[in-house]
Write a structure and sequence with these properties.
By secondary structure, the chain is an alpha+beta fold. Strands 10, 11, 12, 13, 14, 15 and 18 form a 7-stranded mixed sheet that branches. It has 24 helices and 33 strands. The structure holds ligand ANZ and zinc ion. It catalyses: tRNA(Leu) + L-leucine + ATP = L-leucyl-tRNA(Leu) + AMP + diphosphate. It holds the Pfam family tRNA-synt_1_2. Its main location: cytoplasm.
Length: 813
């Protein structure tokens, strides 16, 4: 027997695959296409076990599809722009470009050690000018189509990263920076936005997408579509106040109004007596916006000030006081609310704090119009204390009130979204320069497209000043206006790096195209992505941005489908052996390179898939990997070793059925990303082969079919060892060019066995039953047999005995 040495065999085969170009992308074959993408890595310097966990099973599925007869494309690239490069530059005085590209070189080697079916000629690196040139081109197209616009506004600012953040990058109720955990502050800046909100409704439509429910739910909540009405209240001082409410059915219960402190009407409506305290509150609130106001914490004490004015409830004509409070945000709806303390929690807390009227206008079945309100009751029910709409259900009342408001011209049906436009300007260096020029005469002018890429300059100063490093560059920002030729200045910000990953899956198909972002003839054939894999932490950023970008491209006529990725699967997380998140400080980090050196890539791949259901993740387990070492070792030996004796009587038909069954099982499991059960099945199959090997089945055609099948089924999972076995079995063409083995449905049905049936110890007949049949069904078959039935008729059955696989005995009197 030969010993299998992964350290020799794995590199040997990888070189051979490379030499023979067996993974080369062939866009034009006649086979049906299957486009599989796994989220591209950030070149942080080192591949960690999480990369292996995400990517190697994705490779297994891609390989499986290829064996199933698809023309599979499974590319890889690097998401190469971003803050860590710049921070490394600041900290260690390195050039971010050198840092990034040397990391890429190193990590590509690590990725190659995984044995993936990647065609590296199709690689993309987002920091390459050939790539980011097209970010700039898209930016200009968006600008021309009104999808990119500039706005002066207070934006979220991370004081540590020294840059603006998109709303998605501000996390938690405390509003911390997603990257560095600092408390996020605000800053007034002139910034570029992409108009993702113009696709809000379309982004809520997930039809045709086979995506995990939790991702679509998160996106739906993030977009946050609310249906309701805008309602206008007259105010005694003059100017009317318009509010947005999702509960027009509670209009009779509106006992006061609240304006956001920044609301433009505050200055106009405030009475002379209240001016001093209102001004003080407004000043305080504006200062607070710089830290945190948006808390969703309902326990938080409510603060506010009466502005000394009243509005008129349009239904009851009652006077309702107007307040300002910081729980009303200027950035949502109209920046003003009608407060319904009986049925809204925040309004209830506010009314309690300030002793304002609380009125019930909704009841549940067991309540009456007079039942006191102990807390806010937000649930729908039946309307009370509301004049002509009393008795309607909340839903009916909502419609009735909206119709009434529209008829009286007091309001109109309205929809609000939580989604905000995508803030793309970043005051950092290592990103795509924004291709815009500001001319004192002509205004905002795009860089002419034939001058793209607008290159990122070398040698800048990274001192974290809060200003864009490009602004501090001695010459870069000074230019001439493309329109009038006069002196002009460039935008000195760079783009959010989520721009890079918004369309990379398209660029992979034609990374060398120089006349357009991609070669349309190829993309028309290959898009959308059939299978996307990656982490669920990208639910509302990358996965929403890329859908937006795609729809914008579709509307530009560049792509035709409605969605960029048809099927999405999210892998879970590999935790430390202690079930904590892996981290350097906990000292529980598993280094994949060391594992590969010790066990080989195939073992690491196999173990990561065996450790648990892929979508759930699992804690690392050192003992478990030994189990996979033994499994692959046994698989190796069962095919390559010659048994000393193989003369025991065996059952070729049993092995044949086992072979057909495992073919079906592994195929079905890989199809649905159930890698762990596929491997468990293969382990069992190797045990069955170990037994069969001791019998006269060894060396037969059945044996050969079984061992070949084992090798083919292993090929996606453990591509190197499978290739070595395939060669051992006498094949000259790569196992990775073979078709997935097929199975015969008839072979899946349980094997049947023949059992003699005795009556009172004497054989009286024979029956055929499934080998796996249970006792009651065997007895039922025996009693129904045409020979046995007449013999037991009219007799009393005293005992029925089934000796498994041997006989049935019926004792009668
Ligand atoms: C009256 C009312 C009665 C409300 C009731 C709710 C319950 P969503 O679902 O998130 O869209 N609101 C409107 N604009 C606001 C702002 N700028 N800041 C803070 N709150 C605001 O929430 C819509 C509801 O949030 C609106 O409906 C309004 O309160 C409040 F029993 O109006 B409602
Ligand atoms: Zn000009």
């Amino acid at each position: 027997a030969t010993r299998y040495d992964s350290s020799i065999t794995e590199p040997k085969w990888r070189e051979r695959w490379e030499r023979d170009g067996i993974y080369r992308f062939e866009p034009d074959s006649d086979k049906p296409k299957h486009y599989a993408v796994t989220m591209l890595p950030y070149p942080s310097g080192n591949l960690h076990i999480g990369h292996w966990y995400a990517m190697s099973p994705s490779d297994v599925h891609a390989r499986y599809m290829r064996m199933r007869g698809y023309n599979v494309f499974f590319p890889m690239g690097f998401d190469a722009f971003g803050l860590p490069a710049e921070n490394a530059a600041i900290k260690n005085n390195l050039d971010p470009r050198k840092w990034t590209y040397s990391n890429i070189e190193y990590m590509r080697g690590q990725l190659q050690s995984m044995g993936m079916m990647v065609d590296w000629d199709q690689q993309i690196v987002s920091a390459d000018p050939e790539y980011y040139r097209w970010n700039q081109w898209f930016f200009i197209q968006f600008f021309k189509r009104g999808l990119a616009y500039k706005k002066f506004s207070a934006v979220d600012w991370c004081p540590k990263c020294n840059t603006t953040l998109a709303r998605e990058q501000v996390v938690g109720d405390e509003r911390r920076c997603e990257r560095c955990d600092s408390l996020v502050t605000k800053r007034d800046l002139d910034q570029w936005y992409f108009k993702i909100t113009s696709y809000a409704d379309e982004l809520l439509d997930f039809s045709g997408l086979d995506w995990p429910e939790r991702i679509t739910t998160m996106q739906r909540n993030w977009i946050g579509r609310s249906e309701g009405a805008e309602i206008t209240f007259k105010s005694e001082a003059g100017d009317p106040i318009t509010v947005f409410s999702t509960r027009p059915d509670t209009l009779w219960g509106a006992t006061f109004m609240v304006l956001a402190p920044e609301h433009p009407l505050v200055a106009k409506l405030t009475s002379v007596e209240q001016k001093a305290s209102v001004d003080a509150y407004v000043a305080e609130a504006i200062r607070k916006t710089e830290v945190e106001r948006q808390s969703t914490d309902d326990e938080k004490p409510k603060t506010g000030v009466w502005i000394g004015a009243y509005a008129i409830n349009p239904t009851s004509q009652e006077r309702v006081p107007i307040w300002i409070a910081d729980y009303v945000l200027m950035t949502y709806g109209t920046g003003a609310i009608m407060a319904v303390p009986g049925h809204d929690e925040r309004d209830f807390a506010f009314a309690k704090t300030f002793g304002l009227a609380i009125k019930r206008v909704v009841v549940q079945a067991e309540q009456t119009a007079e039942t006191p309100l102990e807390t806010a009751e937000p649930a729908y029910g039946t309307v009370v204390n509301s004049g002509q709409i009393d008795g309607l259900s909340s839903a009916e009342a909502k419609e009735a009130v909206i119709n009434w408001l529209e008829a009286e011209q007091l309001g109109k049906r309205a929809i609000n979204y939580r989604l905000r436009d995508w803030l793309v300007s970043r005051q950092r260096y290592w990103g795509t320069p924004i291709p815009m020029i500001y001319c004192p005469t002509c205004g905002t002018v795009p860089v002419p497209e034939d001058q793209l890429p607008l290159l990122l300059p070398d040698s800048v100063d990274f001192k974290p000043t809060g200003e864009s490093p490009l602004k501090l560059h001695p010459t870069w920002r000074f230019t001439t206006c493309p329109t009038c030729g006069g002196e002009a200045e460039r935008d000195t910000d760079t783009m959010d790096t989520f721009v890079d990953s918004s369309w990379y899956q398209v660029r992979y198909l034609s990374p060398h195209e120089t006349n357009a972002p991609f070669t349309k003839a190829i993309t028309d054939k290959w898009l959308p992505v059939d299978q996307y894999t990656g982490g669920r932490e990208h639910a509302v950023m990358h996965l929403l941005y890329t859908r937006f970008w795609w729809k914008a491209m579709r509307d530009m006529g560049l792509v035709s489908a409605n969605e960029p990725m048809t099927r999405l699967i999210n892998q879970g997380v590999i935790l430390g052996e202690d079930s904590n998140k892996m981290s350097k400080s906990r000292g529980n980090v598993i280094d994949p390179d060391m594992l590969v050196a010790q066990y080989g890539a195939d073992t690491v791949r196999t173990f990561l898939m065996f450790i648990g259901p892929w979508e759930q993740g699992a804690p690392w387990n050192n003992r478990g990997i030994e189990g996979c070492v033994r499994f692959l070792d046994r698989a190796w030996r069962v095919v390559t070793d010659t048994p000393q004796r193989h003369d025991a009587a065996g059952h070729a038909s049993t092995l044949e059925r086992q072979t057909h069954r495992i073919i079906k099982k592994v195929g079905d499991d890989l199809q649905r990303f159930a890698f762990n059960t596929a491997i468990a099945g293969l382990m069992e199959f190797v045990n069955e082969l170990m037994k069969a090997r001791e019998t006269d089945v060894y060396g037969t055609a059945t044996w050969r079919k079984a061992t070949e099948s084992l090798t083919l089924l292993l090929a996606p999972i453990a591509p190197h060892i499978a290739e070595e076995l395939w060669e051992f079995l006498g094949n000259s063409q790569s196992v990775h060019l073979q078709a997935w083995p097929s199975y015969d449905e008839a072979m899946l049905i349980d094997e049947s066995i023949e059992l003699p049936v005795q009556i009172n110890g004497k054989v009286r007949g024979k029956i055929q039953v499934a080998a796996t049949a249970d006792e009651p069904s065997i007895i039922a078959t025996a009693l129904a047999d045409e020979k046995i039935a007449p013999l037991v008729e009219g007799k009393t059955i005293i005992k029925q005995i089934v000796v498994p696989n041997r006989l049935v005995n019926i004792v009668i009197k």
